[in-house]
Amino acid sequence: MTRHIVKNREDLVKRGRDDTEKKARGDLIDIAEAALGAVDPFDLVKGAMLLDGEILRVGGEEIDLGNVENIFVVGAGKACFQMARAAAEILDDRVRGGVFNVPEEPGTGLDERYIFHVAGHPSPDEAGVEGAYQIVSMAERAGPRDLFIVLISGGGSALLPYPAGDITLEELQELTSQLLACGATINEINTIRKHVSEVKGGRLAQAAHPATVISLIVSDVVGDPVESIASGPTVPDPSTFADCHEILEKYGILDGVPEAILKRIRDGMEGLVKETPKPGDPEFNRTTNVLVGNNGIALEAARQRADDLGYPTLVLTDRMEGEAREIGIFAASILNSINTSNLPMQPPCLVLIGGETTVTLIGPGDGGRNQELALAASRKIRGNGLLLSLATDGRDGPTDSAGALVDEETCGAVEAQGMSPEKAIADNAEYEVLKEIGAHIFTGYTGTNVCDIIFILVP
What we know:
This protein has helices at residues 9-14, 19-38, 41-48, 80-91, 126-141, 156-159, 169-181, 186-195, 203-208, 241-250, 259-269, 295-308, 324-341, 369-378, 410-416, 421-426, 430-436, and strands at residues 49-52, 55-58, 61-64, 71-76, 95-102, 114-118, 147-152, 212-218, 287-293, 313-320, 349-355, 386-391, 403-406, 440-441, 452-458. By secondary structure, it is α/β, with parallel strands linked by helices. It folds into 2 domains: 9-39 and 295-458, MOFRL domain (glycerate kinase, domain 1), CATH 3.40.1480; 41-162 and 197-239 and 276-293, Rossmann fold. Helix 2 packs antiparallel against helix 12, helix 3 runs parallel beside helix 4 and helix 8 packs across helix 10. The radius of gyration is 22 Å and the shape is globular. The chain starts with 8 loop residues before the first helix and ends with a strand.
């Protein structure tokens, strides 16, 4: 049975024009909740880390805990608390201690061995820095007979700040703001983050060497490149300082970033600052990185639930990228094509698109890629059907909305309130407009993070 996650489910269903659309809205929410339920981090870790007597099996590795002196567990990310709960349940009293950086106050159930820091996201803060210091300190304490388990998930880059060299937290915050506003991809943003950090880009595994390091990873990056997820604290980094310089040039912000950061990048290019550890570095010989959850798992669960409800389903891609407003127009064209040409499927049907878009902030609004995508799509939708764009972590950009559910009447509803969809998109002010007409989907923090999903349902 699907666990109800959407808090305003009843209101969204009531907005259906007739019983057929109300049923479709209910079905669509069921399908979205099935997708979210399938990437519950607690279950993902329990399925990936198995203990048989004294033998711990994870990621193809078998570790005899009888030969392990200490077990430390650390982590950062939006899924971190539930991942920590699962690890604690599996390993029980074998764990010596743990430190974690999370985006909200964790629930109950873990004892005093486990220390949680509620850190800032998407902008790093002092609590995150303090937690990062403690995590690195624990890594440096680990010896050759110790097991160092790292729990990584989306949001970990912001939640695990450890400014390198002379860089201050304030300068790191300014860099983060510029990167998030310029339209750079998450891979590009994390390339830079790795080179201004003492923990990212493989440096955490480097600090824990020669301990055995096992990293369990829930991916929030398109294509699941483990070196980019949470900026890869336990993964060798193939990127360079020169790549950072090129990215800053590409987006026209080279001269705007704080001087200390620019100096570090240029010093790195000249060999005056040591590069991040690279593939082939022997310090990673005892490190194993295990991907335990991603967008594909959520898409497959959505497909299965849709099948149960009688909707033939096409998973179009799990690699969606691009500007949110442009992807929204593309998504609307799929819905329209189903209605007019039975392409790529004939109704009733569901088309799923996974991945993550970007937003270039040019107006005074807060943005939110799923809200921008949905509102842009609603301007083009013609005919029967629903489009839901969902952030699987429950937080679309800096807002409390997880996304929006729209149809061909959405723009008319916006205009009836005396507002302009076009102006809202131009101002990155979709949140206010969609909230006014009740099109938001609210889940709160879901405790997971595997990119975004677009659901296109034609009943």
